[in-house]
Write a structure and sequence with these properties.
Elements: H1 2-7, E1 11-13, H2 14-19, H3 24-33, E2 37-40, E3 43-45, H4 51-59, E4 62-63, H5 65-72, E5 83-86, E6 99-102, H6 118-128, H7 131-143, H8 149-152, H9 159-167, H10 175-183, E7 191-197, E8 200-206, E9 210-215, H11 221-236, E10 240-245, H12 246-251, H13 253-265
Parallel strand pairs: 5-6, 9-10
Antiparallel strand pairs: 1-3, 2-3, 4-5, 7-8, 8-9
Helix pairs in contact: 5-6, 6-7, 7-10
InterPro entries: DUF559 (IPR007569)
Organism: Microbacterium rhizomatis
Protein name: DUF559 domain-containing protein
């Protein structure tokens, strides 16, 4: 019976355990011995179970929106609180300090579910988060092959999600890259992303000759040496290279944008000749 709870990620519904053939007496013995803990009337968990899952079971909600995205390993700009989903017709009490999405899910939720489907989470993200932050999550899911555009297109997506599906582009390496491109869309200059030049991928090529590289937290030590070598190779080939860090893009965008505008004004994005 403990193995059955483990299969449910350490938090399980008593009704499902009973339906699987585990008796009330067996469950009661596990509770009395401390091998299981009571979470709610119809929910039990193993000691040390994931606190977010335990809290979801306790309150009768599911983890969703940016919380699910973060747990799934998608790129999330910010998570102001734990985001949970609840049916608007249910009588659940929302967790304290959580952001609760009261909505009928596009994909039905099984009574055992404590974590929402990715599709439901993306639908909520599309209307909950600012455009560029939501787009970064959607494109992260596309890049990781966790969604298929053609399959989502078959669903009756609500307005915000349908617009997000139409906006997402492949080959975005990170949410930082998504935000960078979105913020420069007004420029009216061709921007290619994740293309190979001099044996390595570049994050963005503005026009013909202006390369922009975006450094995340992993650009250190050997990676940093490789970056410097690649920059040198690009410059010897006639490219101009601008390199910006994570915090520059997110916290000092006006200066980043001004630098790019100055480079474009000087014609550094144009091929010579």
């Amino acid at each position: 019976m403990i193995a059955a709870v483990t299969e449910k990620h350490d938090v399980a519904r008593v009704t499902s355990l009973r339906n699987a053939g585990h008796s009330r007496h067996t469950i009661a013995l596990a509770l009395d011995s401390g091998r299981l803990i009571r979470v709610r009337r119809d929910w039990v968990a193993l000691p040390g179970a994931d606190p977010e899952l335990v809290a979801a079971a306790r309150h009768g909600v599911v983890l969703t929106c940016v919380t699910l995205a973060r747990r799934t390993g998608l790129w999330v700009l910010a998570e102001d609180s734990c985001h949970v989903g609840a049916d608007p017709h249910s009588a659940v009490r929302a967790p304290h300090r959580a952001t609760t999405h009261w909505s009928v899910p596009l994909v039905p939720r099984h009574p055992d579910d404590l974590v929402d489907s990715l599709t439901n989470a993306l639908v909520l993200i599309a209307r909950c988060q600012p455009h560029e932050a939501a787009l970064a999550v959607w494109e992260s899911a596309l890049d990781k092959r966790m969604i298929v555009r053609e399959e989502l297109a078959q669903l009756r997506l609500p307005g915000a999600a349908a617009r997000m599906l139409a906006a997402i582009q492949p080959y975005r390496d990170s949410g930082l890259e998504t935000i960078f491109i979105e913020r420069l869309r007004w420029l009216g200059v061709r921007i290619l992303v994740q293309i190979w030049i001099a044996g390595h991928r570049v994050d963005a090529l503005i026009g013909d000759r202006l390369v922009v590289q975006l450094d995340g937290g992993h650009h250190v030590d050997e990676q940093r040496v490789s970056d410097i070598s690649h920059d040198a190779a690009l410059m010897l080939m006639g490219y101009h290279v601008l390199r910006f860090g994570y915090r520059q893009v997110l916290e000092d965008w006006p200066r980043v944008q001004a630098t790019i505008m100055d480079a474009v004004a000087q014609g550094l994005h144009r091929a010579v000749g």
